[in-house]
Amino acid sequence: MTENNWSVRPEKHGDEAAIRAVEMAAFPSAEEADLVDALRRDPTAWIDGLSYVAVVDGDVIGHALLTRAEIDGEPVLALAPCAVVPSAQGTGVGTSVITALLDAAREAGETTAVVLGHADYYPRFGFRPASGFGVTAPFDVPDDAFLVLPLAPDTVPPSGLMRYAAAFGV
């Protein structure tokens, strides 16, 4: 599969079941799929236009989501979950979806994104250790896996404790 085989777009009405199927295929349990469903139902977390999918031949093969979170009371975005069907992993689908999603967040005027993820993957998007910004997670996590991305060059992310939407259960 090459990049020319898929397109990336915002989630639209009717994509919900396909997104759930991607999450179920990409992860060993229903936890991430259930999280997406719960976030979609939470108007304090869900932000229209910040859920993106990759599509090939009409089928959703990748998904990434940004939802509302806070650092010390200041609004930020949480990037989670991100998923690609196993047959398309390692092809650039995830990178394409996340790049488009972060661009959409910038266009929407958002200032900061936070991710808990692989230390060897997310820095390619500009994410850096949250500790360098004075941001702490609400749980124990390796320093190189809890990352922050200022979405504009002049952005100084807020510092303090990260608070996820209630659906995350932390």
UniProtKB/TrEMBL annotation:
Domain of life: Bacteria
Gene Ontology terms for molecular function: acyltransferase activity, transferring groups other than amino-acyl groups
The N-acetyltransferase domain, residue ranges: 6-152
The entry's keywords: Transferase
Range of residues in the leader sequence: none
Protein name: Acetyltransferase
A Pfam entry, by short name: Acetyltransf_1
CDD domains for this protein: NAT_SF
